[in-house]
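Researcher: Here's the sequence for the chain we discussed earlier.
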Amino acid sequence: MLDQTKIDQLSAEPVPPRGHFIDGQDVTGETGETLDVISPIDGSVLTGIARGTAGDIERAVKVARVAFEDGRWSRQAPAARKKVLLKLADLIEREALDLTVLGVRDNGTEIGMAFKAEAGSAAGTFRYYAEAIDKVYGEIAPTAENVLGLIHRQPVGVVGAIVPWNFPLMIGAWKLGPALAAGNSVVLKPAETASLTLLRLAELAAEAGLPDGVLNVVTGDGAIVGEALGLSNDVDALVFTGSGATGRRLLEYSARSNLKRVYLELGGKSPNIVFSDVGDLAKAAKVSAAGIFRNAGQVCVAGSRLLVHADIHDAFVAELCKCATAMKVGNPLDLTSAIGAVNSERQLQQDLDFVAGAEAAGSDIALGGKRILTETGGFYMEPTVVTSVAPDDALAKKEVFGPVLAVTAFSDEAEAVRLANDTEYGLAAGVWTDNLSRAHRMVREVRAGVVHVNTYGGADNTVPLGGLKQSGNGHDKSLHAFDKYCDLKTAWIQL
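Model: Thanks. This is the structure I predict for it:
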């Protein structure tokens, strides 16, 4: 159980400035310039991180390439790599609270959620891929008896990974776990507003026995460091979680450089569909509220569009608002807070602008809609429920990435499917019904990479996460994630 006194002690400790982590060391950037790390809890400067350059990326990629080619990691037996990654998982668990508090001070996620979703999830992910790597086999092809066809899996080489600010440890582990387990070297670029835990993770990986140069972390502006990583001719694969606009640029960088493979997990505007035959309306409302308002709505799969049958619309919205009102917004380091801070002032203003636009378009604000706790200096917003949102309104089309729920009524199953699919995104969805046949029909008909039925969220490493349409390509989690980090090589042997 988390202890508030210990949390308070850790949160009072100063955070020293950080450089890049390259070739097993904390190093100063090429120019020596730094970026302030602003804590969303109170708007104060928490520490500083290196402001990376294209030269810093070039240095890290070169180190990663040398490490890959000399085989210090790539040619280790799978069982040996497994041992290191299991040790890393143990070290993450050892420092779970320290990592969690550091991350919350950096990005504002409420600590109860962060402890499970960040350090807890990262440890589990590294353990999952450590255990998997010596159980993933090549293949023998069904050939004529005088030919032996072997299909080998080999690491792709140097992987560039760019991860967002909402769950840096969790999503970082989704990339690093299979990439490292497969034998690759990695250059990781964290978000400017959430770099601290991933820098510490790199140090823990070195302590676990990961050879120098295999995992490198370069911090800084995405427009500089991310672009340099995307344009590098010596990066073999690039994995990214973030916005569609950035994803498009990364595809362009691939085309302008070495045609590196690019895997994108992009935005979502996920429909959460509630039918009138839902068995437990109160439970559905409570889970739906958590599905949009936890982490202040800053979750890629958040159920940000509520599609609810007209017969239960008013009752369901009333129950959901009741649940949302009970979720305390406050200091994310306080165990009584159910919703923490918005990551940055810029993101908060974007969230507020969406609400103002919806109100101007004729929608009704059923709950919230305002900035709160301004006296703290931090970035906090009320859980916000907007009703009468037309299918073509911006709030129904655009990803807010904040604590804002758009509500639209539907009359029958066909309309629910049409509304659910009326989006450029296809990351996740939810369906609430006690009709088993309807549940299966909706799983088939709704175009999303993940469809939750009578729940929302909670899927673990045993299943993949990936999107359709403009929500991206490729998959994180599960054994399918290895596909991004392995090359298939055929050996055709005449006997």
